[in-house]
Task: inverse folding
């Protein structure tokens, strides 16, 4: 993930279409590429549904809606006027647009690499997005410099509480890179009044229950042109390793335990992913 290779991922288009298709997004953030990629992947999703009784689309909705729920709870705790949400690699997600409309005193900052940032900013401008929704260029792998997280956070009000969100991102990084990212985030959010760090993760022990998921993972890797990896084998290993990066109060949440909250759908079995919720 760098400015030398920041082409917009097919998965950014694909998930953007999923949000729009399920009334989570707005037409202005839906792309023709998203529709194309969604229908291209339908045969794979059909195979998984027939084999396992689960759906990629519903799994993505579980992930998105659970993150929404956790952010809503964080805003309730601190008040929208005293809360900043910073989403890393936001892609075509409509979350910032929705939250900025719902919480008019909230500060929401969407970040991405250059090409995605420019395209998303143009789309938001066409939608007359509220002024409390901001965008910025960010390379999460940079520890310092103009487009680094530390540079961006220095500009923000430390008297407020901050939520850092990464959805669908860290599965593309190897384990040392993931741990470097979390180490940096844990360090940089400490000066804020309070913080929460939210991201999704896929584990070997979960995927092992679904042999066909391995086939889909390899197919997805070829589709996006980048390896899709399982960062850790077990929940215990994930918690221990993440704590060593400086994260505190690390929890791994199964979306199936939150079904019904914020319209989180059920897949009638443990989810294929876990949501990391932690503090820096």
Result:
């Amino acid at each position: 993930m760098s400015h030398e290779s920041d082409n917009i991922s097919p998965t950014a288009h694909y998930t953007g279409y999923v949000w729009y298709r399920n009334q989570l997004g707005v037409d202005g953030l839906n792309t023709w590429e998203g529709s194309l990629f969604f229908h291209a992947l339908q045969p794979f999703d059909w195979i998984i549904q027939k084999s396992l009784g689960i759906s990629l689309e519903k799994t993505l909705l579980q992930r998105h809606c659970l993150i929404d729920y956790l952010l809503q709870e964080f805003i309730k705790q601190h008040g929208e006027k005293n809360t900043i949400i910073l989403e890393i690699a936001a892609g075509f997600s409509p979350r910032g647009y929705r939250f900025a409309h719902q919480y008019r005193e909230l500060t929401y900052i969407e970040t991405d690499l250059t090409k995605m940032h420019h395209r998303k900013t143009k789309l938001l401008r066409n939608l007359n997005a509220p002024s409390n929704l901001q965008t910025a260029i960010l390379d999460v792998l940079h520890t310092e410099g103009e487009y680094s997280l530390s540079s961006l956070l220095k500009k923000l009000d430390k008297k407020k509480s901050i939520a850092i969100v990464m959805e669908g991102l860290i599965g593309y990084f190897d384990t040392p890179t993931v741990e470097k990212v979390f180490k940096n985030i844990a360090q940089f959010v400490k000066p804020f009044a309070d913080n929460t760090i939210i991201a999704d993760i896929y584990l070997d022990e979960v995927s092992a229950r679904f042999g066909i998921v391995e086939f889909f993972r390899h197919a997805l890797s070829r589709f996006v042109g980048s390896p899709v990896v399982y960062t850790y084998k077990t929940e215990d290993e994930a918690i221990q390793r993440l704590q060593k990066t400086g994260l505190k109060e690390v929890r791994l949440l199964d979306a199936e335990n939150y079904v019904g909250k914020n319209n989180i759908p059920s897949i009638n079995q443990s989810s294929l992913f876990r949501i990391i919720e932690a503090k820096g």
